[in-house]
C-alpha cells in the first residue's frame, strides 16, 4: 500500500456520529458518506434530522437526547442493527452551555452542560466499546473536545470543564483499549465559523459589555493564523484519524484551531 492509499479510509466503514444533524457533526457525516462509509447519525432535533435524511438518502438516522442514558442505548442498538456492526464512533454531541461568572451560573445549566457534553460520551462508550472490539477494520473512537480543553476559558467554566474532562477520558481510554486494537483520540476544534460561534461571541460580548464586532476581533487576535477554522477542516482530521494513515495514532488530543494562543 502506498502513502496516498493510506490516506483513504476503507470503503464500507460503519460509522456512528452523535449530534450530527448540523454543524461539525453534519460535515463529518457528509465526509464519511463521500468516501463510501455507512453512516448513522443521531441528534436531539427531529427537524434537523429529517432535513439531513432528505439531503443524504443513504444516511441512517435516529433521534435522541444524548444526556439520557436509555435513549443513547437505544440509538446504539439501532445503529448496530442497521449498520451490521460498528467500526468508528465519533462522540461529537455537545452544547455551548451558559456564559457568565461562576457565581452567576444557574445550577441546572451547569448540570445540563455536564450531562450533554461529558456524561453522554460515557453512555456511548459503555455500549459501543464491546461492539468496536468485535471488528478488525481499524476500529477507533474520536471524541470531540475543544481548544477549551487545553486552555482556560473565563466565563465559560462549565463548557471548559467538560472539554478538559474529555481529554482525560481519551488519554485514559487509549491505554485501556490499546491491547484490544481500539484507538482513541480527541479533536480540539478552535474558533469554528458559523451560527453557533456567532451565538457564543454574542453571549460573551454581552457578558463583557462590548460589541459583537469588538468581541469577534478579540477572538481572531488570539489565533496565530488570524482566522477561524471551518467544519470541513475538522471533518478532514476525522477522516485522517479513521484512515490507515492514522492506525498508529492513539491517545492524542489534536488541535484544529489555527493555533489559538489563549482564550
Automatic annotation (TrEMBL):
Pfam families with a match to the protein in the record: adh_short_C2
Q: Does the keyword Oxidoreductase apply?
A: yes
Question: Which stretches are annotated as coiled coil?
Answer: none
Cite the entry's keywords alphabetically. Oxidoreductase
Q: Which domain of life is it from?
A: Bacteria
Q: Which family does it belong to?
A: Belongs to the short-chain dehydrogenases/reductases (SDR) family.
- Stated name of the protein: SDR family oxidoreductase
Source species of the chain:
Paraburkholderia strydomiana
